[in-house]
Amino acid sequence: MHYYKKGKGGRPRDIYVTIRGVDLVLQVPPGLFSSKGLDKGTELLLEFMEVPEEGKVLDVGCGYGVVGLFMKKYNPKLEVYMVDVNPQAVKISKLNAQRNSLEVNVIQGDTYEPLDRLGVKDFTTIVSNPPLAAGKETVERIIRGAPERLRKGGSLQVVLAKGGEWGEALFKELFKDVERKRKKGYTLLRGWI
Description:
alpha/beta, Rossmann fold, seven-stranded mixed beta sheet, 31% strand
């Protein structure tokens, strides 16, 4: 599934992010999700997500890389994987990692498919702030696919926009403990296996 805009002209812009003591400089080309700056869902995720003390973490639908790069800079001990279906997003995430002197694994592919191919699993946490344009089916695939890829005690953290009540019901079906945080029309759901 492709939910990004191809061929949109214009020059990339730099955005500066400072949150929870972490500073990032990110190049963002036009056409990528949230290309004018952080959207409210990403702000919610960065402000309230749990960043583990150790292990592997995964950012599904990484876009230009802000969430995965934030986790790596917040805790350099983490092994960070970032996946996006958009080749432009993968390219810019790699560039942003270099610009911020961070070593992460950025892979092109649809949700978990490239990691399954590589045999990478047992994540401490999986995070995602999927754009609405990705569609409910893609978001549901991210949620349903997480438990088998998390290590025992691992968590999934997903941001849903208005109307995402179905997501909370799905979390309660799949995870033993579920937390919810709402802010400005967005909901951060966190579930543990």
